[in-house]
Fold this protein.
Amino acid sequence: MSQITEQINQSTIGDILENSLSGNRPSPADCLRLLDSDDVHLMGLASGYLTRKQFGEKASFVNNIILNYTNVCITDCKFCAFYRSPGATDSYTLTLDQIESRVKTAWEMFKIRQVLIQGGHNPNLKIEYYENAFKMIRKKFPNIGVHGLSTSEIDMIARIEKSSTKEVLSRLKDAGLQSIPGAGAEILVDSVKDVISPKKISSADWIRIMEEAHTLGLPASATMMYGHVENNNDIVDHFFKIVKLQEKTRGFMAFIPWNFEPNNTLMQKENLVQYGTGGIQLLKMIAISRLVFDGLIPHIQSSWLTNGVGMAQLALQYGADDFGGTLIGEEVVSCTGARSTELTGKLIADAIHQIGYQAEERDNFYNPVALL
């Protein structure tokens, strides 16, 4: 700690980090100074200290699959290489039997503890499709948590059903939905959304649907996709909209910052973004996430999916405490050709052990399952 204090005293962001180590959350102005600073290593020293203080030298992960149940989508996000228009020759929607088969195989082979269910905004799927899938998974595979449907998918179902999003959430919870992923947030600033996903729900709607989920007893993840057309002020706005909601509901279990991968997307074709932001920016975002959410959102994920295992190992020393999931069967990021998007639990545990940490398998709600 004394070594950290000495370096902090010599830094232009030292006052912010000193306040953070004393338990005081950075203000929006402080957050902007951190984003503008190049002193990433020092941020990592402070955020890593706060993380080890809470979790020790231990990192968790979940054995899971991603079930991308359909690639049919009418939202046409410019950052997505996965979606297909209705009627496209390579479009698909899984049947209930196909969903059961995939979950059964994953349980038998990997003893998964979570199925992450996400897909396109398919106008042909009514709410019964999701209810039947969730009921089947919870009945036949009671040890597997159902973590599914972004806020924008919830909104799409509500529009199809001519219902409210709260009613949809309530019905899906009754059918077996247990928690909500944070997808659809991107950057919670509408001027950014108007460029990258103009047909998707607004920032206010994302916050509203998340609040509805929390009040119904559905915990969630919060995410941020950075590295496209946003600026640092937009990132600050995003952070503090989530802070405000979390102070009200305490419904977020984890925060996951991940960088935009432009390959094979419209944003690359239109020359809006040519390259991903790289590793230094990841470490900065992980560190700032811990500083902003310390004591508020318990878990920060390392974001290996778009950055690889080596960067995820570094992220665990810069403020992350959770490696994320094995993500077997992932199809969205893999459409960008970014890198292999599957890891087994053993490979994740090995990666955690390589940095001298203990590995802890967890369930859907971040409860420990086994220490490895």
